[in-house]
Design goal:
The protein is an alpha+beta fold. It contains two helices and ten strands, in the order αββββββββββα. The chain has a single domain, classed as Jelly Rolls, CATH 2.60.120.10. Helix content is 15%, strand content 35%. The strands form three sheets. The protein has a five-stranded antiparallel β-sheet. A three-stranded antiparallel β-sheet has the order 6-5-8, with no helix packed on it.
């Protein structure tokens, strides 16, 4: 039995806060070849996850918010917001599923936020994500401003 409890979540949050990227993954699947990828993703509001999609092969991705508040955004092919949800157990918005081939990103709205993610496998870092050309890369100076712009557009800033 794999337990997801305060101990593992607290440890992961502490690691995310100390990491340069302000997020930390904990994999439950035994290896990258697993057909179902299951993980915890602890993230701080300062992290930036570039909009991306999973295609070739197409993969569905599911997010559940275990702690904190997390914004999940879907985008059109032109980078416009197509849909969004704020995941927050206190409001009854527990999770969402992103269809295969849809542009999306996640933004932590509260310190100590943790998502449980499930995604089709296997995982190949060379083909897992196709990053949006209309959004800055993770290491580009404009990355933080992209999140700010999305939050402003949705009235969440």
């Amino acid at each position: 039995m794999i337990r997801i409890d305060d101990s593992i979540i607290d440890t992961l949050i502490a690691q995310a806060r100390q990491s340069k990227r302000k997020r930390q993954i904990f994999n439950f699947h035994p290896n990258p070849d697993s057909l179902i990828q299951r993980m915890l993703n602890a993230m701080e509001p300062e992290t930036y996850i570039q909009p991306h999609k999973h295609e070739l092969p197409d993969k569905t991705e599911v997010f559940f918010c275990l702690r904190g508040r997390i914004l999940v955004v879907e985008y059109t092919n032109q980078g416009e917001i197509a849909d969004h949800i704020v995941l927050d157990a206190a409001t009854g918005n527990y999770g969402c599923e992103i269809a295969a081939g849809r542009w999306h990103s996640i933004i932590s709205l509260q310190t100590g936020s943790v998502a449980y993610e499930v995604k089709d496998g296997p995982y190949d870092p060379k083909t897992d994500k196709k990053f949006a050309s209309w959004a800055p890369g993770e290491d580009e100076p404009e990355a933080g401003m992209f999140n700010t712009k999305i939050l402003q557009q949705l009235g969440l800033s």
